[in-house]
């Protein structure tokens, strides 16, 4: 779903979401917002108004095709962006020609967090996690804005100003595992049975093959 917005996600959801008879979705993350938060009038045309983003996020989480699985859901907020590394073009309108701004991305992260609160769905708040690690304190100017000096950690986490670096993904995995252990302890990897048999488990393979033949 590279570059997808919530608008596009809703259109393709019926194409990729299996029925419970085909495959069981036990745990599902919903991670949108970075593209929805593009400035209005930008050349990519990805902007989704904030109110529509909220509506779409709620619709995805409560969609009949999703509810059929009764999955454990986790909403992931968009991470911050680094304006210092964003390429401005003359074709783009908005803040100094930028496709995305740190302030607008914060608004979409706040909205994702509120959707989680309203629907009682755990939220992996990447925006706050990254900002806190960067030393940001509420009320201060946002790291990543061109109005403040460059922030070393934000520079390191967002290699091109938008996409996550390996270090950032390490943080995502660490924080996601921690959230799963807290919100859905039965879904911790160590507690899950394998879906497919081990290569050397003859009994499991016999049961698997018998099940496939029925």
Question: SSE layout and pairings?
Answer:
Layout: H1 6-16, E1 27-31, H2 50-61, H3 64-67, E2 72-76, H4 102-119, E3 123-124, H5 126-133, H6 152-157, H7 166-183, H8 202-213
Parallel strand pairs: 1-2, 2-3
Tell me what you see in this structure.
InterPro entries: GDSL (IPR001087), Iah1-like (IPR045136), SGNH_hydro_sf (IPR036514). The protein has one domain (6-213): SGNH hydrolase (Rossmann fold, 3-Layer(aba) Sandwich). Helix 4 (102-119) links the parallel strand 2 (72-76) and strand 3 (123-124). With 214 residues, the chain is mostly helical. Strands 1-2-3 form a three-stranded parallel beta sheet, with helices on both faces. It is built from eight helices and three strands; from the N terminus they run αβααβαβαααα. The relative contact order is 0.13.
CATH structural fold name: Rossmann fold
| Category by helix and strand content | mainly alpha
Give start-end ranges of low-pLDDT stretches: 89-95
Per CATH, the superfamily is: SGNH hydrolase
Radius of gyration: 20 Å
Distance between the termini: 35 Å
β-strand amount: 5-15%
Keywords: Hydrolase
GO molecular function: hydrolase activity
Protein name: SGNH hydrolase-type esterase domain-containing protein
Q: What are its keywords?
A:
single chain; 214 residues; mainly alpha; Rossmann fold; three-stranded parallel beta sheet; 3 strands
In short:
With 214 residues, this protein is mainly alpha-helical. Helix content is 42%, strand content 6%. It is built from eight helices and three strands; from the N terminus they run αβααβαβαααα.
């Amino acid at each position: 779903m590279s570059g997808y917005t919530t608008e596009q996600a809703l259109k393709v959801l019926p194409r990729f979401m299996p029925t419970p008879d085909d495959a069981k979705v036990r745990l599902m993350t919903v991670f949108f917002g970075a593209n929805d938060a593009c400035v209005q009038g930008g050349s990519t045309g990805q902007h989704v108004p904030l109110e529509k983003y909220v509506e779409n996020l709620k619709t995805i989480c409560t969609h009949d095709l999703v509810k059929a699985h009764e999955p454990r859901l986790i909403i992931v907020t968009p991470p911050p962006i680094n304006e210092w590394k964003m390429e401005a073009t003359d074709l783009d309108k908005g803040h100094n020609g930028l496709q995305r701004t740190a302030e607008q991305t914060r608004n979409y992260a706040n909205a994702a967090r509120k959707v989680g609160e309203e629907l009682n769905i755990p939220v992996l708040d990447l925006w706050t996690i990254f900002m806190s690690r960067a030393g940001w304190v509420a009320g201060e100017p946002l790291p990543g804005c061109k109005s403040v000096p460059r922030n070393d950690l934000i520079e390191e986490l967002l290699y091109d100003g938008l996409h996550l670096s390996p270090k950032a993904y390490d943080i995502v995995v660490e924080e996601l595992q921690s959230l799963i252990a807290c919100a859905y302890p039965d879904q911790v990897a160590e507690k899950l049975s394998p879906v497919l048999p081990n290569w050397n488990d003859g009994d499991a393979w016999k049961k698997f093959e018998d099940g496939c033949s029925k």
